[in-house]
Amino acid sequence: MNRKEMIAKRAAQELTPYSIINLGIGIPTLVPNYLDQSKYYLHTENGLLGVTSVEEDEIDPNLVNAGKLPVGEAVGASYFHSADSFAMIRGGHVDVAILGALQVDGSGHVANWAIPGKDIIGVGGAMDLLSGAKKIIITMGHVSKDGSPKFIERCTFPITAERVADVIITDLAVFHWKDGEYELTELMGEATLEEVKEKTTAPFQISKELLQKEGSL
């Protein structure tokens, strides 16, 4: 299992059956591979509730998600105007949004829509989802391509919203927002506490359960 699949599989464990879930571009689109899709309602902001995966020979080029990827439709799926879809998001009717990120900082701010000096492909629905979804899960690599940390003390890229991300899942670790700060609750794959500390500049606490497991108490 590659690191993206590992992150997606772990994100699926954060989801409650029969919840409404919006999936961002990239790693989030892999999450349905680890769900019983009959027990979850997947939402895409371009106007479909009841998104499912689709076999290659059944692809309809007119049926895509917000990332332009082909999707299927579940039994009972609903179509609606994108304005209605965003009203659904802004009205607090999406239970969980799973989003990628360029950076997340120790205050919980997410930067995922622009890199200074580079072209902006499109803002998408991230700003609305971060403001309107009941729970925010961030899935990302722990470091960027050049090896620099992505979970940092303070975002250097433009933040997407003031909303705090509830859960951060990377290829090295899982963090949960608790009592005004992030708590490291789990190590991913073969990662060690020392590696996570070395590749993270954001402040975080370590859960007692993890310390006990690692023999640090």
From TrEMBL:
<dbReference type="Pfam" id="PF01144">
    <property type="entry name" value="CoA_trans"/>
</dbReference>
<protein>
    <submittedName>
        <fullName>Uncharacterized protein</fullName>
    </submittedName>
</protein>
<dbReference type="InterPro" id="IPR037171">
    <property type="entry name" value="NagB/RpiA_transferase-like"/>
</dbReference>
<keyword id="KW-0808">Transferase</keyword>
<dbReference type="InterPro" id="IPR012791">
    <property type="entry name" value="3-oxoacid_CoA-transf_B"/>
</dbReference>
<dbReference type="InterPro" id="IPR004165">
    <property type="entry name" value="CoA_trans_fam_I"/>
</dbReference>
<comment type="similarity">
    <text>Belongs to the 3-oxoacid CoA-transferase subunit B family.</text>
</comment>
